[in-house]
Automatic annotation (TrEMBL):
Lineage: Bacteria, Pseudomonadati, Pseudomonadota, Alphaproteobacteria, Sphingomonadales
Binding sites annotated in the UniProt record for substrate: 35-39, 47, 51, 79-81, 83, 85, 201, 207-209
Entry binding sites for Mg(2+): D34, E220
Name of the featured protein: Isoprenyl transferase
Matches recorded under InterPro entries: UPP_synth-like (IPR001441), UPP_synth-like_CS (IPR018520), UPP_synth-like_sf (IPR036424)
Organism: Sphingomonas hankookensis
Active site: D34, N82
Amino acid sequence: MTSFAARAPVPAHADEPGLHSSASIPRHVAIIMDGNGRWAKARRLPRVAGHRQGVEAVRRITRAAREQGIEALTLYAFSSENWRRPEEEIGDLMGLLRHFLKNEIKELTREGVRLRILGNYRALKADLVELIDDAVARTATNTGPILAIALNYGAQAELVAAARRLAEKVAAGMPVSAIDEAAIDRELDTDGLPPLDLMIRTSGEQRLSNFLLWQAAYAELLFVDTLWPDFDGECLAQAIAAYGQRQRRFGGL
Ligand code: IPE
Ligand code: IPE
Ligand code: MG
């Protein structure tokens, strides 16, 4: 499995010639999908209308990412802090997630996409957990790109869980010296995903909101003003072009 410890400045796909026409296509892109509420507000619509359009953007962008040759797309759909929202909005978001899982699984399977979930999704309603487990199992043997959806995800909680598992391993006899960057990578929800190359946040906010804090160590960050429901294939292409202009030095010269 690919490890996040592989942080050397190797061009994307140096080991897999021919998969991409360009070495500047990011292998792993993460998106903080923000701005649904403001999109709705600007149209005097209820916030849920923004979330509905946000789901349309998810459909568009998962397809566009595949077409662009991105190996792994990670989408922040619900943070561990989003429980602070009104119950009604949480219900709307969970309803849209249920709908998405029921409707998109066929296309994902057909397209060979592997679905992964980051975050403590087991705390969601039982029927959602069942839908998620089923979708993940049904796509597990696919060999195409990875779609990772972060649900009830918080990077600090992810790191706490990793620390606890490592502590248990030490208690069971693992030497403390075995804890290194690669060992931590393996305990994170992103184990097996390619190193994070590009993190995009829409809607003009410039913060990480507890998303992939460890994994973003050397990711390129891109903040765009576009609200998530307006984000389309052209916006993704522009983001990839911007990434291609960045000089990644990884501490070297
Ligand atoms: C992002 O849009 C969707 C989720 C966080 C679930 P927001 O709902 O945060 O939209 P704004 O930030 O209020 O515009
Ligand atoms: C981050 O957006 C979480 C998701 C996109 C799922 P928020 O809108 O919740 O973030 P803050 O509260 O503005 O930091
Ligand atoms: Mg927001």
